[in-house]
Amino acid sequence: MKIDELDVRIVELFSEDAGIGVLAASRLLGVARATVQSRLDKLRAAGVVQGMAPTLNPANFGYPVMAIVSIEIVQGMGHVPVGTALREIPEIVEMYTVSGDHDVMVRVVARSNDDLQRVLDSVSSASAVNRTRSVVVLQTHFQNRVLPLFAHVGGAAERNAE
Amino acid sequence: MKIDELDVRIVELFSEDAGIGVLAASRLLGVARATVQSRLDKLRAAGVVQGMAPTLNPANFGYPVMAIVSIEIVQGMGHVPVGTALREIPEIVEMYTVSGDHDVMVRVVARSNDDLQRVLDSVSSASAVNRTRSVVVLQTHFQNRVLPLFAHVGGAAERNAE
DNA sequence: GGGAACGTGAGCATTGTGTTCAGCCTATGG
DNA sequence: CCATAGGCTGAACACAATGCTCACGTTCCC
C-alpha cells in the first residue's frame, strides 16, 4: 500500500472529527469529493483504516486506575487457555502474548486502588496463571498515537525511498 | 455519569460502524431519533465518548512488528524531559509513567525485527534514559477492548452479549 | 401538587450521500 | 513516439440524514 500526503491529510481530518463528512473534507483539502471518497475506500480496503469507532475513555465512566500486568503461565500449558480465561475479565482492555521472561502482558483498569486489588486477584486466579507482576500506571502520556507515524510514512514517500 | 443499557447499545452500534448515523441507530433500537441524539450529546459532554476516530492499524501500513519497552531513567531527572524526548519518536504509539522498578513503559512498532533494533536504539539514546528492557509482542489478542467493560457498567452483566 | 428531567413524534429547511458519467491529465510501457 | 491505464475532476441525480425546534405525555422526587 502506497500512502501519500493526501491520504494522511484525509485521515488527520477524520481523526479530529469523524463526523466531518466526505464533502466537507474535500472542500477543506481543495480536492474533488470523489477523490476523497475513493481514497477512503482504498484505505479501508487495504485495512489501513479498520473502521470508525467512538473512543471510550474508562477514566470517565468510573475506571480511573490503570495497571500493566506481566503474567507467567505454568509450564506445559499453551497460551490458548490463558487467553480464553482472561478474555472473560472485562477490566482487561489490552492483551498480548510476548517473548521474554513473562508470557502474557495485559493492561487493566479499575475503579480504585482497592478495586485494582480485586482485578489483579481475578487475573491471578485464572487457570494456567503461575505468577504475575504488576505496575501501576501513574500518568498516561498518550495512547494509540498512530497519526504521527502515519504522517511519517506519508511524508517519507517523496523524500525517502521505501 | 450514570450509564444505562440504552447508552451501551448506542455505543455498541456506533462501534460497529460509526457511519451508521443517528437515524438508523434510533430505528434499530426502537427509540426516537432525538433520544439517541441527546444520549450521544451527553456521553460526549461527560467525556465518556471522546470522539469518533478512524482506527489505524500500523500492521497494515508497514509496521507489523511490535514491542513493549520498560525504561529506567537516570536518577535525579524528572520524567518530563524523557517524555518530551520520546514524544518525538513516531514509532512510539503508547507511553506511560509507571510505578515499580522501571519508570516509563512504551509500546513501539517497527517495520521488521531489524528495524526494531533501530527503534530501540533511538529510545535508548534519548536523553535521561538509563536502561531499557524490551519484550517482543508475539500475538495481539486484543487492543483497546473497552466495550465489554462499558457494557458491564451499563448493567448488562447478567445479559450475555455478542 | 409542582416541577424537573426525560422520551416522543412531528415538522422544517438545509445539507450530505451514493452513484454514475464523460472529460482531462500524467505516468508507464510497447 | 504513441497508446493505454489509472487517477482526478466537476457535475448530475434522487434520496436520505441532519440540526433544530416544538408541544405533549411520563415518571420520579422534593
TrEMBL record, chains A, B:
Residues 3-64 form the HTH asnC-type domain. GO terms for biological process: response to amino acid. Keywords: DNA-binding, Transcription, Transcription regulation. It holds the Pfam family AsnC_trans_reg. GO terms for molecular function: sequence-specific DNA binding. GO terms for cellular component: cytosol. PANTHER family: LEUCINE-RESPONSIVE REGULATORY PROTEIN, TRANSCRIPTIONAL REGULATOR AZLB. This is Lrp/AsnC family transcriptional regulator. It comes from Kocuria tytonis.
